């Protein structure tokens, strides 16, 4: 009787335990998602704690560097998700974090699985159950990899990867406590299939994405998945390789976005000095990027030497650096500062430098705006130092090490173009004032008192320009611009003598031009005190810009112009003069009665004849040479 009941009991036990096992398979799938979410959330929280600690360390190091006193630095804390911890703790946390799916901790109970395995062992069906379990888990894993087309991957990627993480956390638990239900090769085969599928999904999704921030969000979650599962012994390198493979695409998208922002920031700027009324504005726009030139807090309202584009560009570049470091971090590459620095150079050269260069070459800027752009570039040079240091600090590289790979100022093209534009606009204004030279009387009986009109107008304009420029332009830039302007004045004065409209001129005209030159030389001497060098050195540099005009006037006023032919005298006193110009100008030199080389401040005929002979000899010799 009992023997006849055994098959029925056996069949009943199989049906009952199969039903319990099937119910457990449904529950474990839901529980796995919560397990993965909690495990990844723990890794994320631990990463955030580590980054906060590093930020405090950087702040302490910076304070110590600037002399605010040494601060005790705590040793870095590295997080870990203990694979040997009781998985029930994770499930309990998942249960507390879920309001939709009930008690995940209860669902994670492996007792039904182990009971089913034990009964099948007792019934002599152990291998059959192992195969059945593995096949059903494979089917579940395959189902988990079905990416829905209803919701964008950006919205569903966390559930997708959390489901995978939870799946393999469960398998690791069963491998260690299941009494041989599954084997390491079996789990490894499942993981290899899962990795291949995740790589395929990531490749496909990354190829579709056209927003840098979307790539960054998914990359961060995948890296957390890698951190989580690596603690359980799973090889995650293929996933990290996918992230590294799309590094260039991410930065290209980020560069495109930053390029648009840079253009918008420049378009929105009126290129006027920025006014800051409150201390927080100063902190946000100056101290935040280490643009200050003094440790003393200024009085408010404060007028900065730069315009609003500078802090706007600084915020764009700083955000780029932080996003770049965020993408490169936790991707398996430890020393990624050279990569971040290379992309930073690309941003500065391809976006910032190129955009400012287009602005400068666009032709829409006036003198005051060009001067402000040139002043901005000097401030941006300090800002680029900050970007470099910021990238090194975020990358965990000591500054002394990072300095070895330091490059030249990356905005050099736009800086030079801004300075050249300012000089070109100033030269254009000088040309306008030189139109007044049409009123110069080249054959007047007496020289004009106080110089010619054009020189006085130029001096007034230059003095007005300098009074504004010295407040915002760096002194080296201002000096170079003034040298260029005065050199242009010199060229214009020489050009007056060479002009086809001037058929002849006399000594009175030369004396008037000499008075003009003295005005410009006095202007240069008065400015010498602005510069850091000695007054004598500065005055000499500025006056040397007009040396050609001065040498020409000196030659025309000389009692012995033939001395120009003496190599020693020419090298000492007339080394900037071209002999062809000297010939052309000397041939125009007349007095009021059309006689060559008339009075030079004296009335004596004997002296005039001597000078006339000297000039005739000079012209004849120079013609022979030519």
UniProtKB/TrEMBL annotation:
Localization recorded for this chain is: Cytoplasm, Cytosol
Ranges for the Exocyst complex subunit EXOC6/Sec15 C-terminal domain? 238-588
What Pfam families does this protein map onto?
Sec15_C (PF04091)
Keywords per UniProt:
Cytoplasm, Exocytosis, Transport
Q: What is its main location?
A: cytoplasm
Q: Does the keyword Acetylation apply?
A: no
Physiological role: Component of the exocyst complex involved in the docking of exocytic vesicles with fusion sites on the plasma membrane during regulated or polarized secretion. Involved in polarized cell growth and organ morphogenesis. During cytokinesis, involved in cell plate initiation, cell plate maturation and formation of new primary cell wall.
Question: What name goes with this protein?
Answer: Exocyst complex component
Q: Which organism is it from?
A: Ananas comosus
- As recorded in Swiss-Prot or TrEMBL, the protein's gene is named LOC109728122
